[in-house]
Design goal:
single chain, about 375 residues, alpha/beta, Rossmann fold, six-stranded parallel sheet, 16 helices, about 50% helix
Length: about 375
């Protein structure tokens, strides 16, 4: 099957859940023998190297905010049209224009909102976003051959966003593709003293201010955060960093083997996002064998509750700090969390397993498009 992936960046290593997912999924589909194209607006040397190593084709389609360059798009379709196009993300007009052109050519497309339909996201800049949703996104979703969600919570949000949708809706988790083996959870110290968080420094979305206040109430613990600044909350982040306690340290982003080293050197992982559709770094920490502590805003916390995979923090900062300190003082409990979380990640987040689940969605989307005569 020839598959186009749209929404990833032109470099494989960025602090972005969509990009991590697109590259991991594309590599896995290529390993399964499919023709995979990553649609990018330009090409970096790192992307060329990564694509060549994994059998992925990079399809350069220049675009502006509103549309892809028409001649390049037409030539790409003439040379080798895809059987299906998988589009990640929302609130980008050029994606809506792409969907329109695909429909005209009866090419089925799959939409993955990547957290875009979560209620807190819909409320952020609500007036402007509401207008765009009703003018653009509702139609794009309604005409998709399939919509995918990464957790049951996101699937519920998708169905609430498009209540009359008659196509395919499936829940498929994101793939996790760390280089090399994870830690052996039986050899970890589980001292529970050093916690790490890998995220963007979007203070509101990622709850950086919440994490800092939990750290302030937990002076015996050490917190190391890794990530890039986010322009949306840049000033707020600098104020938070300036007034953070001594047991909080901020670092730049890490990738690949350096990310693996950071995770293996920690005692636990923590994420205090106000909302999080999935959380690739959480899944990576689970895969490595780290015990994890999550806010209720992280959708993966639903799995933590159901399967005993880790610590789900209460919403109040004082109570969250108390629960965190208590759980981290119980090494046997931490070891149990880590073992169950790692087993869960290996079963549900392995790239080839996720790729096969998506392939079922693509096949159903193509069948539906063939049956209805629509993309």
């Amino acid at each position: 099957m020839r598959i186009w992936y749209v929404g990833g960046a032109d470099i494989p290593e960025t602090v972005d859940g969509i990009n991590s997912t697109v590259w991991a999924l594309a590599k896995a589909q290529a390993r399964l023998g499919h023709q995979v194209c990553l649609v990018v607006s330009r090409v970096e040397e790192a992307a060329l190297t990564a694509a060549k190593e994994t059998g992925i084709e990079l399809l350069v389609l220049p675009n502006n905010r509103w549309r892809y360059e028409q001649r390049s798009f037409d030539l790409a379709l003439f040379a080798s049209a895809p059987a299906v196009v998988h589009v990640f993300g929302m609130y980008q007009p050029h994606l809506a224009t792409l969907a329109m052109h695909l429909r005209r050519r009866a090419i089925p497309y799959v939409v993955s909102p990547a957290g875009g339909v979560d209620p807190p996201v819909l409320r952020r800049h609500s007036l402007r976003k509401s207008v765009y949703i009703h003018l653009v996104e509702k139609s794009r979703f309604a005409r998709a051959s399939a919509i995918t969600a990464v957790t049951p919570a996101e699937e519920r949000n998708v169905r609430a966003f498009s209540p009359g949708y008659g196509g395919i809706v499936r829940c498929v988790p994101n793939p996790v593709d760390l280089p090399g083996p994870g830690a052996d959870s039986t050899t970890l110290t589980h001292r529970g003293r050093r916690l790490v968080c890998l995220t963007r420094y979007d203070v509101y979305h990622k709850g950086i201010d919440i994490l800092v206040e939990i750290a302030r109430l937990s002076p015996a613990l050490e917190f190391d955060l890794y990530g890039p600044e986010d322009p949306r909350t840049e000033r707020w982040f600098r104020r938070v960093r300036e007034h953070s306690p001594a047991n909080v340290r901020f670092h730049g982003p890490v990738f690949g083997k350096e990310k693996l080293r950071v995770l293996q050197g920690a005692d636990a992982y923590i994420q205090t996002s106000r909302y999080e559709a999935f959380g690739v770094s959480i899944a990576e920490a689970m895969q490595v064998g780290l015990p994890c502590a999550l806010s209720r805003g992280c959708s993966l916390s639903e799995f933590f509750d159901q399967h005993g995979l880790g610590i789900v923090l209460p919403s109040g900062v004082n109570e969250a700090a108390r629960v965190l300190q208590q759980r981290l003082s119980e090494p046997h409990l931490l070891r149990s969390y880590a073992q169950r979380a790692r087993a869960f990640a290996e079963e549900h987040f392995a790239p080839l397993a996720v790729a096969r689940k998506y392939l079922e969605v693509y096949e159903q989307a193509v069948e539906r498009a063939t049956r209805t005569g629509k993309g």
